[in-house]
Specification:
Elements lengths: L8 E4 L5 H12 L3 E6 L2 H11 L2 E4 L6 H7 L6 E4 L16 H29 L2 E6 L12 H21 L4 E6 L7 H4 L2 H7 L7 H13 L4 E2 L4 H11 L1 H18 L1
Parallel strand pairs: 1-2, 1-4, 2-3, 4-5, 5-6, 6-7
Helix pairs in contact: 1-2, 1-8, 4-5, 9-10
Length: 257
């Protein structure tokens, strides 16, 4: 299975499980040298040992220097995969500002900080690849998860900006936007996830497969659930109709909680 990433230096954040672990496994199978990052050092080491990679534990915003050293100074692919999700805000509830701040920091600003560190070397040599795990919530939205939905929109907007700004200088950007994926994060979404995401949930390995195919086809937007493209078009073509439909789902969720 050794392929196009033979010898490439790859960093995957939030790779102690779920999508991140699947990405680490897939890049390693393709011949890459993989740095496995996670806040949980034990989980990072477990996956790194499995794939023959290097574990670098810690906050995704602060590990690039160590990750670069582990890869002999060169990061070819950076997967901004670490993310957090909190329950949303029901009518009448107070805003949880800590949840919002953490969501912005992990789901958006960690990507910004990584890009700031990576871009000088990438632009100098004329190549580099930034992979952002966004979620379909960044293209559409998600009931019961306001901080997650809003910040994933921000992650997508930043990925778009990176692509339009630097693609002519050799920087490739990919935004992965799956719906439900069978991970611990999906399990934590509760009744909203059960209603909207569980029925079509896929395995993390399917997301990794979709990414590799999207890279081969040089696509920015990677949709492991192809139906998301139609939802996105419907949202753009008739926002009021789309919002009405989403509000029906919201009402169904409220009635069955």
């Amino acid at each position: 299975m050794v392929g196009a990433f033979q010898g490439a230096g790859v960093v995957v954040t939030g790779a102690g499980g779920g999508i991140g672990a699947a990405l680490a496994r897939r890049f390693a199978a393709e011949g890459a040298r993989v740095v496995v990052n996670d806040l949980d050092a034990e989980r990072a080491k477990h996956v790194a040992d499995e794939v023959g990679g290097i574990a670098v534990a810690g906050d995704a915003s602060a590990i690039l220097s160590d990750a670069r050293d582990a890869l002999d100074g060169t990061v070819d692919v950076y997967c901004a995969n670490a993310g957090v999700a909190f329950d949303g805000i029901d009518a009448g509830q107070a805003l949880d500002e800590k949840a919002w701040a953490t969501s912005w920091d992990v789901n958006v600003m960690a990507h910004v900080r990584a890009a700031q560190e990576l871009l000088p070397a990438w632009l100098e040599r004329g190549s580099g690849r930034f992979v952002s795990t966004v979620s379909a919530a960044g293209l559409l939205t998600m009931i019961g998860a306001a901080p997650y939905a809003v910040t994933k929109h921000g992650a997508l907007a930043f990925a778009e900006w990176l692509s339009l700004t630097y693609r002519h200088r050799g920087v490739k950007v990919h935004a992965i936007c799956p719906q439900g994926v069978r991970t611990d994060m999906l399990a934590a979404t509760g009744s909203a996830g059960d209603l909207v995401l569980q029925p079509t949930a896929i395995e993390p390995e399917a997301v990794a497969d979709a990414l590799v195919k999207g890279i081969e086809e040089d696509r920015f937007l990677i949709l492991p659930h192809p139906e998301v493209a139609a939802y996105h078009q419907a949202r753009a073509g008739d926002p009021d109709r789309w919002l009405t439909g989403m509000n029906r789902i919201q009402q169904q969720w409220e009635e069955n909680r």
